[in-house]
Write a structure and sequence with these properties.
It is a single chain. The chain is mainly α. It is built from 3 helices and no strands. The chain has a domain at 25-69.
């Protein structure tokens, strides 16, 4: 998709330097993908905060290790 956007030169320069992209387009793609990954992780963290995982009372890590070795 072709987009026209007014973005400050200083911000573009910092994004290009930080991402190591070959050009502005590649740099923006890298930055946007990185941003989206982090937002998705934030959503998952929020879900876990609302409803934390609970282990069974009889759960022991070494028992799981034995199951995985079978």
């Amino acid at each position: 998709m072709k987009v026209t956007a007014l973005i400050p030169d200083e911000l573009i320069a910092e994004v290009r330097q930080t991402t190591g992209g070959k050009n502005i387009t590649e740099s923006l793609i890298i930055a946007l993908e990185h941003y989206l990954r982090h937002k998705k992780l934030d959503g998952i963290i929020d879900e876990i905060d609302k409803e934390p995982m609970v282990f069974r009372e009889d759960f022991v890590p070494y028992g799981l290790r034995d199951i995985n070795r079978d």
